Amino acid sequence: MSLSSSNLIIKEDTKIYVAAPARVATGGPELLHQFVYHLRNDLKHDAYMYYYPPTRKHPVHPAYINYNNPFVRKIVDNHQNILIVPEVVEGVRLLKRYKKLQKVIWWLSVNNFLISAISSCRLSRFTLFRVLSKITKSLKLNPVLDYRELVLEKFLRHKSAILKLFKTHNIYEVNLHICQSYYAMDFLDSISIKNKVYLSDYLSKEFLTQNFDPQQKVDIVAFNPQKGISFTKKIIAAGRGINFVPIEKMTRSEVIKLLQRAKVYIDFGDHPGKDRLPREAAILGCCVIVGKKGSAANERDVPIPWKYKFEITEKNIPAIIETINFCLENYDKVYWEFDEYRTVIKREPELFLQDLKRIFSAG
């Protein structure tokens, strides 16, 4: 028997299962596929994808076929095997099915667990708000209420409510917690979870191998309409004359082309983990302006100058508009202020592999 540096038992015949939602293509599942790829090809572990629900006929999304990761429909439950699940409640619930194997949660975010756990509860006081949010979105109305923000504001303020959720889902019984962000590390530390390690992620080669030409930049402010849209709409309303362009219904190549042209990217979402879009925007030459929420509130996950981070309050909207305009008008003089962030992003593949070996190599 061999122990890794994270105290996981890893034998020659240990199987490592990594759970992911079937046929879903977002930042989280992409990281899970990268993870299995490196476990197999760099550490030579017997690692597999496990898609849920396991009955899905064709569970592999076309975007991830290139990883060539094998998948299983059944998990062997014994003491030497390891099951790693993402932090959303659908993933965490898988752990309850198995009694013997070693259990790991990968905190790709913090907020998404809280939201998914509460939203899945039939008696949740937020059910009505969730329904209203879906209706307003489907009818393309301005949202009256953002249930995500209500959930986060309530639970991130009340430690007792978080502890109750964690105990309900047996979070404290897990063998190891992996954190994609320092925000997650700090959060778990605040509720006395000590068996945790840091393992972040990295951008795809499609972004890391791209260049940007400062001379080709135009006065565009890109934003993600899926994150913090209520506050972002207020910024757009106040920023008359500014060309705001939403990143929506775009292929990856279209996103790259937009960010190569845009001078500024803004993100006033909840930053539940170390989000990809701010990094993708920075690596393609955008000045990045964010709200001080989640991972964006610390200097380690989003290492940009503090003057580009704002508390999400209406009184700050004039200052945000002023900063946007300054970046647009003085782009040639300010884009280099994000070079340190770009250097960190470029090193992420190397650091990911170093941390992966530290956690999953037998000692």
Report on the architecture of this protein.
This is Glycosyltransferase family 1 protein. By secondary structure, the chain is of the alpha/beta class. It has 2 domains: 15-202 and 349-360, 3-Layer(aba) Sandwich (Rossmann fold), CATH 3.40.50; 205-347, Glycogen Phosphorylase B (Rossmann fold, 3-Layer(aba) Sandwich). Helix content is 40%, strand content 15%. The strands form 2 sheets. Strands 3-2-1-4-5-6-7 form a 7-stranded parallel sheet, sandwiched between helices. The chain has a 5-stranded parallel sheet with strand order 9-8-10-11-12. The longest helix is centred in the last third of the chain and has 22 residues, at 339-360. The termini are close together. The mean pLDDT is 89.
In short:
The chain is of the alpha/beta class.
Descriptive tags:
alpha/beta, Rossmann fold, 2 domains, seven-stranded parallel β-sheet, five-stranded parallel β-sheet, Glycosyltransferase family 1 protein
Number of strands: 12
Binned, the helix content reads: 25-40%
Straight-line distance between termini: 10 Å
Please state the second-level CATH architecture of the largest domain: 3-Layer(aba) Sandwich
- CATH topology-level name of the largest domain: Rossmann fold
- Domain count: 2
Shape verdict? globular
CATH class of the largest domain: Alpha Beta
Oligomer: single chain
Q: Determine the strand fraction and express it as a percent band.
A: 15-25%
Label the structural class. alpha/beta
So how many helices? Answer: 14
**Spans of 5+ residues with little confidence (pLDDT < 50)?**
none
Biggest sheet record: 7 strands, parallel
- Mind telling me the C-alpha Rg? 21 Å
Run of helices and strands: EHEEEHEHHHHEHEHEHEHEHEEHHH
Sequence of strands across the biggest β-sheet: 3-2-1-4-5-6-7
Overall pLDDT level? 89
